[in-house]
Amino acid sequence: MRYYLKCTKCGSTFESDYRSQICSRCSGILEVVYAHKPAMGREKLSSFWDFVPVLPSGNYCRYEVGLTKIIKSTDLSNTYMKLEVGNPTHSFKDRGSVIEIGKAHDYGYKEVVCASTGNMAYSVAYYAKLYGMKAKIFISSNASRDKVRDIRDTHDADVTRVDGDFNKAQRLAEAYARRNGAFLAGDYCYRKEGQKTIAYEIILSGIGADSILVPVGNATLLSGTFKAIEEIRAAKRTSSMPAVIGVEARACSPLYKAFKESRGVEYETPRTKADAIAVGYPTFGNQALEYMQKRSGAMGTVSESDMSKEQQSFTERYGLTVELAAVAPLAFLRNGKGVPKGIRAAVITGANV
Ligand SMILES: Cc1ncc(COP(=O)(O)O)c(C=O)c1O
Questions:
Q1: How far apart are CA 200 and CA 44, in angstroms?
Q2: Which atom number of ligand 1 is nearest to the Cα of residue 325?
Q3: Cα 94 to averaged position of ligand 1 atoms, centre (Å)
Q4: Which of 81, 92, 97 most suits a substitution to test ligand 1, by most atoms within 8 Å of the C-beta?
Q5: Under 8 Å between Cβ of 38 and 231
């Protein structure tokens, strides 16, 4: 669908041939704005590419991704689980990467660079290789050794392990992109467009979810979920829309605190073992807060031990390996305060341990 880019900070606009996801005037994060109301052509999905009418126009290679299974929890009542571990690199990141790296390829870049806590790097490196591009990765010090080895050995990426957290890696990736003319990939607007398709799939599945629960690191998935809901509501697909609950690790909960205290997001040193959501300053945090104020949304937190127990019991029950961050929504449903009523859909985001 035809679109332009709009800065979330200063409101400047850019045509779709603008080759960056960051505003050249104020360094704010850009957002994809569609020329017309995006609306799905069909409700019965047979491929991820059925989402083309609600995605930014581009010459994408149509690699198959998404359309992941939804199964019912065997022990939490009224709870469905969206198994994003079924994606090619075992995490929800692939939906965003196929779009974002496709745009970089479209613009003629030969190299992409990104900062990551692990999964994004894995996914970006995989799609960069498919699209025939080089990948440079800055990975935070808390990422597991196995993830780093896989990214380097399986997908031929050039990986620098940063002595610091995700936000430090992000600054290094941005500087690398400026210095080397590489496309800056990561938690920016094109990825969000790909990731919003999870909410589309949940709503179109017909399970009748009253709420969607997602783990939160950079809040790209959270704000993408809200964006999908706004689009579907505007296209009048359905009148009642699910509430959205973001779940952070208690040991790294900058967005939860900002939400509770009705203020902007402030940096917090990440202290959680759930490496995928160890983000001290979420890129899309303030935008997600705006959505939460406007729409039906809330934040919750989970303890380290509740995530560990949930991870173990998930593997025992379903025979699937998942990472700590991925079970944060389930841990919240089991132990949290303010658990939503009705039918709940928890997004199980990744399996890369
Ligand atoms: C497995 C997993 N779950 C959740 C998240 C959080 O997603 P977001 O950064 O969009 O908030 C990530 C991000 O890396 C992840 O890898």
A1: 11
A2: 3
A3: 11
A4: 92
A5: yes
In words, the CATH class of domain 70-91+191-348 is alpha beta
Distance CA 209, CA 15 (A): 36
> What pLDDT sits at residue 324?
96
Query: Which residue CA neighbors atom 15 of ligand 1 most closely?
Result: 276
**What is the pTM (predicted TM-score) of this model?**
0.96
As given in the structure block, the two tokens for residue 303 are 């303890």
Query: For residue 184, which of 103, 110, 114, 97 has the smallest C-alpha distance?
Result: 114
Cα–Cα distance measured from residue 261 to residue 299, given in angstroms and rounded to the nearest whole number: 12
In CATH, what is the architecture of 94-189? 3-Layer(aba) Sandwich (3.40)
Is there a shared CATH topology between the 70-91+191-348 domain and the 94-189 domain? yes
Tens of pLDDT along 216-260?
A: 999 999 999 999 999 999 987 666 789 999 999 999 999 999 999
pLDDT tens for residues 91-126? 999 999 999 999 999 999 999 999 998 899 999 999
- How far apart are the C-alpha atoms of 194 and 247, rounded to whole Å? 20
Residue 302, pLDDT > 80, answer: yes
- What single string gives the DSSP state of each residue in 85-150? GGSTTSBTHHHHHHHHHHHHHHTT-SEEEEEESSHHHHHHHHHHHHTT-EEEEEE-TTS-HHHHHH
